[in-house]
Structure formats: structure tokens, C-alpha cells
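Annotators were shown the component list below and the corresponding predicted structure, then asked to write short factual statements about the assembly.
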Amino acid sequence: MKMQRRDFIKLLSSSTTFGLAYGYGLFSRLPGISGSEALAKQLEDVSLRPVEEKWLPSICRQCAGGCGVLVRVYGERAVKLDGNPLHPINGGRLCARGQAGLQLLYNPDRIATPLARAGNRGEGKWKPVSWDEALGTVGEKLKALRKQGRPHELAMLTGAQRGLERTVSERFMAAYGSPNLVRYEPDRSLGMNPALNLMQGQAAGFTYDIENAAHILSFNSALLEDHWSPVQLFRAYGNFRRGRKENRGKLVHAEPRLSVTGAKADEWIPIKPGSEGILAMGIASILIVEKRYDENFVTERCFGFDDWTDESGTLRPGFRTLVIQEYPMDRVVKLTGVPRDIIIRTAREFARVQPALAIGNDGPGVRHQGIYNRMAIHALNALVGNIQKPGGVLANARPADLSLPPVSRDRVADQGLSRPRLDGAGAERYAVASDVPASVTDNLLEKKPYPIEILMLNGANPLYESLHFERLVKALKQIPTIVSFSPFHDETTQWADLVLPDTTYLEKWQLDTTYTLKGHPVVNLSRPVLKAPFDGRDTNEVLLAVAASMGKPVANAFPSTRIEDLAKLSLQPLSKGGSGEPFGAPMEELWTRLLEQSGWKVRTEVDFEKLWADLLERGGWWDPVYYRWEWRRALATPSGRFEFYSLGARDYFAKLTGMERDMALQKTPRLVNLQQADAACLPAASRARAGGNETLYALEVNPYFIPILSGITHTNQPWLQDVTGFHVYQNWHTWVEIHPETAHQVGVHNGDWVFVESPGGRVKARVRTYEGAMPHVINLPVGLGHTSGGRWTAGIGENVLKLLQARQEPFTGQEQFKPARARLIKT
Amino acid sequence: MAKWGMVIDLDKCTACQACVIACQAENNIPNSDPEAARTGRNIHWMEMLPMVEEEYPHLRMRLMPRPCMHCEKPPCIKVCPVNATQISSEGIVGQINARCIGCRYCTTACPYTVKYFNWFKPKWPEVMEHQLNPDVQVRYIGVVEKCTFCHHRLQKGRDLARYEGRELGPDDYMPACVQTCPADAMYFGDLDNPKSSVAILSKSKRAFHLLEDLGTHPKVTYLSEGV
Amino acid sequence: MDLKKTFEHDEEVLLRPIREVNRNYYITVAVLSLIVAWAFFAYFYQFKWGLGVTGLNRPVYWGFYITNFVFFIGISHAGTLISAILRIAQAEWRRAITRSAEVITVMVIFFGVASILMDLGRPDRIFNIIESGRFQSPLLWDVTSITCYLTASTVYLYLPLIPDIAIMRDKVNKRKWLYNVLSLGWTGTPKQFKRLELVISVMAILVIPVAVSVHTVVSFVFAMTVQPMWHSAIFGPYFVVGAIYSGIAALIIAMALIRWVYKLDNYLKDIHFQNLGLLLFVMTLLWTYFTFSEYLTTFYGAEPTHMAVFWSKFSGEYMVEFWGMIVCCFVIPVIFLSNRKLRTMTGMMISSIAITIGMWLERFIIVVPTLANPRLPYERGAYHPSWVELSLLAGCFAFFILLYVLFTKFFPIVSIWEIQEGRQHAVSEVSERVRTYLPDDHTDGGETQPFPTEQMESARS
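Structure shown to annotators:
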């Protein structure tokens, strides 16, 4: 009989095991010191039986990047994660967070069973209950609320949900009759998009074709640290640097601190915190004055570069006027602290080396750039005409249509849905926003527009994210019922009445929709790869079960009670043909692209079961063909052009009335010469003044997100915690980076423990002198300081957000950090 | 006979530390905690090294992933009193856990400080033991451990190739760090094979080694940033 | 006969510590035993939980234990080496001091070896050194060399003990069986003496290269690596000098204590201390010379990695230890030993204690700062010994003193027969020898008579 490869692997593992067992036997005989218990377990587990070893595809969901993983399943255990080589996003690679995924799966601090609150709220006393009991309680409460005709008083705060997960939440809430499905993840995954939406119109998101760019001018972009999809960014970066035979891409980076991106850049430009937009305008002024911009693109594809006349015949200032009048070089130099010659050199280089990209803060973490500064930065891309070009800014292609038949709603649901949202999104000031998490705290507290009866926490942890900790706690106390689906005892879960522990991503079904960095839509399919080590349940299945238990019409929300069936149903349209295909080897991809671009489109319908099997085996579907010349998609603005003067913004302000309009305008930057109404539609970069007495609080605070924890919800992962601040040799506690000379001036030394005090609050941190810090600017890492959530995160460091204050942006209502000042006090 | 070597292109490297964590995951390295980190007992076979040169604002920070250099002339094996650390015929510097007496002479002799010691018995919370790699032995208390270039993967790859009746191919053996590197900044292969990417890259004019002047002949080559 | 009475007096005085046991002795033994017991507890604690209970870490992989190892092996040079050199040089003042010196050697080597064992992560695998020993490793050279030295020193201690054991067998009413066995049937015939002295002199010659090799090899443990400020060509002689230096200091302390406790002022006389003091002064200068050369070459070479270590000693984290060493090993001894007025018993005791401390610091300052400043930019290491290491250090000292005290209660700490031999033969032998140094006297038959003895006598007076 011929031996099969798999048998051979089995044999191999058993022989290795035998070797181990023999070795272990030897050492266990020694008194006192024997092989570790873990080793003993390892051996017991595998013993001499042949063990089957499989590699199963799944999705990494440590962050929103959407990488495909292969899970090495050894018998009943998952022992390693690696990238799925067929996956178009990560191509077999994984980042640090992805590699640490098993520490989430097998985390000893996961909540093992449903819990009901035993003590007072926030006390952390729980008693375990059965799933039946827990689901019963939730069902009863929901039923009762609906019966009273108040379904809108249910609110669900979610994390960065996408795909099937999102569909489940949406349908549940819709059928139940509540508009209050709020993504509570400040600025996460939005990045540059709101600014780009103003200038290029609403699209399915934008992306930077880093791989093909020749020059990148990064404005505190946190490109290599805090990107929404790090692995594909890293892959693109590798190719940007060395992927082409000649023409190594050059990276210039402006940031107050020498970050990883700064260190990796060819040139680091230290810049005063928050002044990136002004630097961009300085560069724009050089491009304009020296006529180095792409005139062709600007005249053909842009609007509002020159002054223009509106419908009423009034002359409106264009971008050129804005730049020339408001950003004279002296002012730029003064506000940014960047020497004139560096600005000129940078600008000339940016214009000369094409394609060149200007990228602002595009990451999920630290939010301080603000929409106008981001517009200013993005304006540079239009000035050099780098839109919809290889190596330019690309609008994502249209996603695959995975929608299920619409939810049939009853009258109660319709009534509930017609109520205004808890966060005010979609109305008035936030008419263009889909979620406004920053409004949640105030509105809950003030019971606006109505009180919330039941709050569900589905992947959101507002108490950590919020800058208004105390107010939010107060608001939570007012809510009669709080249900948390968190798999960990995170901060907000501490205030819940009922905890229905979720499973982690390797244990559940998910259809995840995302994009590559070249704008290709991707659909990830993942299924449970192993038996859950804890008695948690997938929240989506729980919602399905709750809906079913409530009977019609809420039960009608879902065509099936099994999540797997929902996934199948959603994928049905893909079998109907059209573009796109399951993940394949790069060769197949190239072939499809070649065929389609020469006009031959594959439009054959395939057997769904076959497609399903294919998707399960390969991990997902994508459309490898991208049409760059679809200008209508890329420039979906009122003018159909790239708008330096955003007509979208103008319309938005026009639609607001009286007070609302004034309040919205108040949040826009003030200019010297131009009117407020114009400034509100132009890339009016500004640098907010830091609050606080300058003599008392002599140092400026520059918060930044810890790269290795960026995008992670549950930070109870020791591997990651151990390498947080490797560049300053600090981990497991918050540190404050300070320039050695400044440290000397304020009388602190490397390694000292200090309080960093701002007018808003204080945190304890360890001084780390760092040459890469700007004098008089202290850098503090965000991402630590959880007060609960497990042994490797609770009490580790401090939450730097405590030092900061924020304001709400116009349009999106996102929270934007105000610059802060601080001082150091020795402990 | 192959001579295994690694090339790390710092121009592509993004210092994302995927290699660091992949190594922890592959090689059953115990979890760190604040106490272990404070007392210098955490273990990283692969570690990110920051090298800051010059002063603000013209400073350069070089971030280097640092595995064991697998020197051709390893200072560590010269000093081991019991032959517990050896260089294999294929150039991999290994550590025999079962023989090591824990004198830590090799750890002090290594100019790269890449050898680690098990100060305590390696322990995991029970549920975390599920994720232990069955191919890699859990170390004992009181012995030295180090990067092995994921030698167990070589054994597996070789067995598989032998079973399938073919030569060991370039994809059959790759350490976990190289496999995961998102920026594709790490290369691994046979330095003696002139056609292998590592052999070609290690002759690049950007190539340099850590502490080259010590004459240890590292088999990990770095490619410098810049053109 | 007069001589016989003197001999009896010698025996009476020198055997008194063995014959008489008083309360102070029991208290001393009890206190020391308590410390030793505590150290044993500390060691078993470490054995159970691992070396993590020490202050060692990465990169400071070696700390107190290795410092102690080098230090104790250094002290061991007090005995056998000095005694052998003095014997070969026929320095007659050696007779009263060789025994106490040799005992130090034998006793203290155990603690050198023990320190290594304490430092091992897997002491249970110690026999791997035999099973899979690898001779290219300087550590194995150490093992060999130290084993050799221990054996040689023990033999070298034992041989001159035999006649004294015989005396005890005959004259002490305790432990007859022990002395009976150990005396190997010694009867003191001239033939036996002749053989004994032959063997002793052969051993004395043999033991010198072994002793020199021991500390050279200890230094090689460091010097054979490429680490900054370890990789030094002068480490061999530097360590040997340091070893003899600390050894003599330890010997002076031991002798002073013996003389004080057992009231042996008549045997361990000021002249012995003066001679040793002068020797110590020479070693001070020699050690200073080596230290100076070592640090100056590093400083002038100015290699950054070396300088990192250099500055951490000179003005950095290890400044206190470094300057402490300079004060203890250079300033204090030079002040007290160079000046005849200050080279009193007190002065010498102060110097010796300072040197012992200083030499321990020297070992520490060699071991730790190099490790704490690795070549690559890791975080600079820090090392703070834990209670376990401190306990074991105290335990080693206590155990050593305990063994020493016990020895003095079992065997005469001043060699009886050598003193007697000195009284009997040495005086005449020496004057005979001195005569041979001088130009031959040809007054009887020769023509030349350059310097008649009488003239000299008169000239002197």
C-alpha cells in the first residue's frame, strides 16, 4: 500500500513524540528538577497515537486589516497561525498581532460562562448562569420593551464590525425596531476618508497605492505603525522600497517624534505637534508659486483651484488664493518650526519625483489631525495630479453585493426606526456621518433624544476609548439594563448586568468584506477551526437565537437560525457570475486580469456548492481587476471633479439652519483674510493652540499609538505587551519620551518615575530620554492603562487619554484631540 | 552540504516585530510578565534592536531584527564545557537542552548576547498549553536556549522531501520569522548554493554583518537602508 | 638537655589548642554553624526554584557566584604557593607560618569549587563534565587545574603534618585512632625524615606551576572570550598577582587571629608579620602596576565598547565599587605598609582587611560591568544581588572560618617538627650557608686576604 502524505505526517509526529517521551522519561526520573509540567502535558496529549495535523483557513481579526490566516490544528489544538498564501491581502504573511492570535484564543482570562451581576454595578462580582437562563433573561427584557412600544430604547454599541457580523447586528436592530446601532470606535478605520470624501465625493473608501509610488511624503501618517491593514501596507512598503528593479521609493516623514516610520524614512522632518496641515500648505504654496503643479490635471479634473463665481454671482476664493493669502512662508515656518529651505527642498522633490503621494494620518489610533488638515494634505495629491494613477490615490472598486433580502418590519419596528438616533448621526449637524460615538456620552447622560433602557455592548469598550470616563460611568449608571458580549472583563463590561461571553475569531463563522490597498474588494470567509476551549458563544449566533426566541416579527430578521446558512445565503450572488473569483495563486490572478483587461469577461455561472467548497478551502473571494479610469466613481462630487473648494461641504452647511449652522461653523478653522463660510469648505489647515498655562505647563504633549497594540481590542496578550516600547527599552508600563536636554532642563533623568500632569489629568510614567523626541515636546504612548481585562493588561501602565481633551469635528462628529500641555512632577 | 543563512533587508523591514512574535509562537517561549521584564528574564530569540546614531535633529535610528547570528566561528561553542552548544555540519548553532549544565559561559561569551537562560521552570497557564508547538521541546529549568533557525522545520522538511523522493527544495525549510515577514524583508536559504537568493543578496554592496570585526563570521547578513 | 626542654615547651604550647576546648570555641562554632545552616537553606531554595531567585539576569549572567569563585581561588594562593616558594627559597622564617597558610589553600578551594556549583543552572548534571567534557573550554581547564591544585595542596598540607600527627598520637589523649591512622606509622627516624623532606621539596617544586596555572586559567575564563575588558593578554599574570596579593592579606589576617586567640605571640612573631608585610607591600605595588597597565591600555585604545565598560567603572554605575577597590587595594596598603612607623600589627591588619575587601571588589568589577555593557545596544544591564546570593556569600565565609577553626582543634596550626628542626639544625645550617655566600677565606695558605674577619668585626663595632 502506498503511503499517503498525510499518513506520513502522522507517522512523523508520532515519532517525534516518541523521541520527546523518551527524553522526558529520562529527566523526570531526576529528583527536584524534572521536565516542565507543560512538557508532560504536551506528551500526554500527543502520546503515541498518530495525530492528525491540518492547516485550516480563517481570518485574522486582531485588527481590521482582514488578513487570511491558516491555523495549524494539531489534533484538537490550534498550535500556530500563519498567513494564507493565497490571500490577496497578506499573501501568506502575518504581522505581530496576527501571530499572537492564539494568545487570544487560549487566554486564561477569557470569561468562561455567562455571568450575571452579583454585587453592585462596577464591583466586579459575578455569579455564573447557564446559557439558557441568560438568553431567557435577555429575551424577556427585549420582549417587554418592545411590547411597551419603545424598541428604540435599545441601543447596541459595536466595535469595528464588518461583513456578516455587521449584517446580523443591523438586521437584528432593524427587525427589533431600534435605530441605535452605533459603532463605538473613535476614528477607527476612517482615517483620511472623511477628508477625501469632501474633496472626491462619497465612495467605498479610498486607498493609497503605496507599492507603485515613487515618493511618499508622509505627514505624521503612522504609516508603519498604525495602519488599518498593516500587513498589506508592509508588503506594499517592501515593494515600494525594493520591489522594482530600479527606482527605489523614497519616503519623507514629518512628525514631532522619531517614530518607526520616521526611523525608516529617508528623511525625518521634526515638526511642531499638530502643524502638519500647515506644512502641507507651505509645500502647496511652493508648488503654486514655482508652477510645479500638474496644470493639466488641475484644469481638467479639478474644481476650485482658481477663484470661481457661484450661482449668485459672488466671487469665491479658490485654493490658490487660500494658499497665497493665508499661508505666507514666514507663517508656515513659524507655525511648523520647519526651516524654509527644508520646505522648499521637500516641495520641489515632491513635484519632481512622480508618482508622489502625500499621506496624512490614516490610522485607527491617534486622532489629532482633523479633517481640514487632512484636506490640506490631500490637496497635494491633486496638485501633482496623482489621483487614479498607479502609485496614486485610488477610490476602492465597488464591493461585491452580498446583501440578503430586506428585513420585513412590523409597525412597531417602523415607528422605532423613525426615531432620531442616540448619537445624532444622519441628522442635522451630523447629516453626513453614519456614527457619532463622541456624542454618545453626553446624550446618554442627558437622556437625549430619549433615555436608553437596554444597552448592548458588542465588541465596544467605550470606557477605555472615552476621554470622559467619569461622565460615561455616570451615564452607564442611569441605564437600567446593560448586556455585554465581551469575551474579557473589559472596563465597560464591569458595569454590565449580564455578560454573554463571545468567542474569539477562530471559533466563529464570519464573512468579512474589505479591500486591498489597490482598491480590489475582498470577501473573507472563515469558519470555526476548532472546538471552543471555553463555554462562550458567538454573539451573532446569540443574536440569532434571541431573535428566534422573540418570535415573529423579530424572528423574521433572519432567513435561518444558523449563522452558517446566513453566510451561504449571502454568498449566493457570487455564484451568478460576473467579475471576481476565489483566492488563487498569483498566476491565476494575473491571467484573470489579462483576460478582463483585454475585454474578455468571465461571466459563467458556477455551481454554488462547488464555489462554497472552494471558498472554504481557499479562504475567500476577490475581484482582481481594477478600472482606474472610472472617474465618475473616483470623483463623485457635485461638480464631478476634484474639489479644492468642497461643494459637498458647502451643501452641508447650506442645509443646516440657524443655530446648528453657527455651531458647525464654529468648529471650522478661522482664517485671517477669507470669510468663515469659504474657510469651512477649503483645506484651511490650522494648528490649534494648546490649552493650559505655558509657564506652568511648559511641555507639549504628543500622544501616539503603540504600534504593536494598534487596532487591538483585547490587549491581554503577553507577547505583545512585552515589546511595546522596544525603541526606548520600556515595556509593561507607560513611559514618557523626552529629549535629553529637555530632561536636563526640567530636572529628570532616564528611568525616573514621574507624574505627567496636564490641565485635564495626570498619569504616572517612566522617563525615557530619547534623542528622537523634539525639545519641549513629550511623547506618550496610548494603548496601555486598562483597569481590567486580564492579568497582562489590567493595571499595566496608564491610560494617556486621561491627559487629553477633545473637540468634535464638523461633518463627522469624530473626536479630535486638542493639543495639550503638561509638566513633569517627580514622584 | 547546505550552509543555512539569513539575509535581512533593512530597507524593506518595517520594524513591525512580526518576526519577534512568530518566533515566540513557534518555539514555545514562555510568556513574559512585568516582573520578568523588569529583572531581565524575558526571552526573545528574535528581538528588535534600536541603534540610535548622531543627535537631534539629524539622527538616524536603525531598527534591526536580531536573531542568533549562527556564526561560522561561534564564540559560544568554544567555551562550552560539555559540548552542549555545537555548530552542525550545515552551520546551525544549536543548543542541547538535555546536556546543558547551565553554567552560562556561552551566554557571556556571545558578543551578540543572543543566548537566553531559563531562570525558572517554564510555565504556562493551563489553557495556554494548548498552543505549544508539538515539534519543539519545552525547555527545562536552568538551561540555556537560543534561536535554532527553527531547526525542527529543517528536520520535518527533510523527512518530507525524503519521503516524497526528492531533494530538499528552497520552500521546504524556512524559519517562522522569515515565513511571516510581511514586508518580505527576510530571506533564508543555502549560502553555498550560488543561485540562492541569500547567496546573491549577501554579496550585495549593501550587505554588512553585526560586529563584523570580531571575526565571528555571522551567517545573518543585513542589507543597509538607502540606495 | 636544654633543647629537649624547649621542644617540650613547643609541644606544650602548640598542642594546647587541641587539648583544651573552651566556651568561646563552642560559641564560635555555633554561630558559624548557624550561618552555614542558613546558607544551606538558601541554596536549597535556589535549587528548588531555580537561579531566578538570584539577582542575575540577561545580560548580567554572572554575578556574586563567579566573583566569589575567582576570589576564593585567589585567596587559595596564600598557602601552598607562598609556602612552596618560601621553602624552595629556604627562607627560614617560613617555619612558623607555612601550616596556617597551607590550610587556607585547602579549605578555601572548596568554596571556589562550591561557588561554581552554586552558579550552575543544573548542578544535578555536573557529571556531564566528565561524560561529555570538552577540553577546548577554559572552564574545563579550570576543572582540571583546580582538581590538580586541590590534590597537590592537600598532599602538600598532609606531608608536613605527618610528624606532627605522630607527636599528637604520642602525646595527645584524644582521637588516638585518628592520629594513629593518619601518622602512617611515623617514628621519626632520620631515614623517614630524609624521605619526607625529599618528597616535600619535590611537591614544593611541583605545586608552584600548578598554582600559577590555576589562577591563570581562572583568568582565561574571561580572557578567552572577546568581551570588552575581559579579552586581555595580561589577565593571566594580573590574576596570579592579584591572587597572591589577596592570599597574603588573608594569611596575615588568619595568622593575626591565631596568634591572638591561641596566644602564640612567641611563635608567630612580629618579624613574621613584618616580613609578610613587606611582601604584601611589594604585591601592592605589583598589583597597582598591573591594574594601571590594564586600564591605561584600555583608555588609550579607546574602543567604544571597551570605553563603555571603562566609564561604567570609572565614573558610572560601578564607580563606588571601582574607587572602593582603588582605595582598598592601593591607597590604604601604600599608606600603612610603605612607612615603617605605620607598618604595625594594627596597620597591617587594616591593610589586609582592606585588601581582602578590595580584591573581592576587583573580582566583582571585572565580572559584572563587562556583562552589564553588552556590545549591542540592549538596555544596559543592572545587577543587584538577592538575599540568596548574600546568604551564600556569608555562608561561604562562615563555613571557611568554621573549617579553619576545626582544623586548629584537630591539628597544630604551627608546625611543631619544623620549629624543632629549625631549632636543632637550621641555625647552624644557615650560618654555614651564609658562609658559603661569602668569598672563600684563604688566609691559611693563600696569598690574598682581602678582608680579614677580625677587621670586619672591629669595623662593625
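Statements collected:
1. The mean pLDDT of chain C is 89.
2. Chain C has one domain: 2-428.
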